[in-house]
Amino acid sequence: MYKSLEEICQIEKESGKPFWKIVQEDDCREQGITEAESFEQMRRMYQAMQYADEHYDANLKSASGLVGTEGKKMQEAREAGKLLCGEFIGKVMEKALKTSESNACMKRIVAAPTAGSCGVVPAVLLSLQEERGYTEDQMVEALFVAAGIGGVIANRAFLAGAAGGCQAEIGSASAMAAGGVAHLLGGSATEIANAAALALKNLLGLACDPVAGLVEVPCVKRNVMGAVNAMTSADMTMAGIFSKIPPDEVIDAMRAIGRSMHEDLRETSKGGLAATPTGNEIKERMSHLL
After folding, report:
1. CATH topology of domain 5-286
2. Contact assessment for residue 100 and residue 210, using Cβ atoms and an 8 Å cutoff
3. In whole angstroms, what is the distance from residue 130 CA to residue 126 CA?
4. If you write DSSP's letter for every residue of 58-124 in order, what string do you get?
């Protein structure tokens, strides 16, 4: 697993291999499998994302009752033409809610990179495939790109909210999705890394403060924010807008911020939204479930 995005960019320049292939070859070495086996593994991941979206249950709520049905509400608002963000971004928002709600309702999802941030990458990639008609193989390539970015973040920093706050979960997922989009739009490794950097920069310092200790509030709606952020970061990159801070340094900054965060802001439910009067009231009400 690579320790820097710069290393992947350099390999692309020297070998001419695309970002996704460099990541896949590393995966093959690590797992001791063939390229065909690796590709099919990732294809199953993408198909599981499709399954989670297609089998969303609009009537299902989580055991706490805090999460559920909102993906359907977004779908209805989109279909009615009520969204200022428009059809495409509305679809991204809808899918982010649906997948995240499915996680809270204990349905099958893909942790990308975590369960709490599982709605970001699927929302972005599934919506983009529907919008642009990319093949499934192209989407699998985009997932390799996302995985490579996630691997570097895991190596240089962390992916868990308990370690680095929600910037490590939603922030990393948004960076992964942004890189995947940049790849689909024809971006080079440098552009892919930049899209990831822009996405992560936007979410630096985000606290992990789950109400009642459940990955539901505010987690589900943060997936929407992470997904839309990924799209805008990829668009900025492909328009020629680049981060003044190099991608690997952005990841290092995220690590430093996470380490400096008080433990109350790292998934302990002792601070932030979890510590508000309403957050405490919900925790007390949910105490019989915990």
Report:
1. 2-methylcitrate dehydratase PrpD (1.10.4100)
2. no
3. 6
4. TT---TTSSS-SHHHHHHHHHHTT--TTHHHHHHHHHHHHHHHHHHHTT-----SS-STTTTHHHHH
**SS3 category, 208:** strand
197-220 exposure pattern, b = at least 16 Cβ within 10 A, e = fewer: bbbbbbbeebbbbbbbebbbbbbb
What is the rounded CA–CA span in Å between residue 121 and residue 211?
A: 24
266 phi/psi in degrees, rounded to 5: -125, 70
pLDDT digits (tens, 9 = 90+) for 223-278: 999 999 999 999 999 999 999 999 999 999 999 999 999 999 999 999 999 999 99
How much is the pTM? 0.97
Q: Can you read off the two tokens belonging to residue 206?
A: 């985000």
**Residue 290: predicted pLDDT:** 58
Cα(161)–Cα(182) distance, integer angstroms: 26
CB 165 within 8 A of CB 265: yes
* Of residues 144, 137, 139, 113, the one with CA closest to residue 20: 144
**By 3-state DSSP, what share of the chain in percent is helix, strand and coil, each rounded to 5?**
70, 0, 30
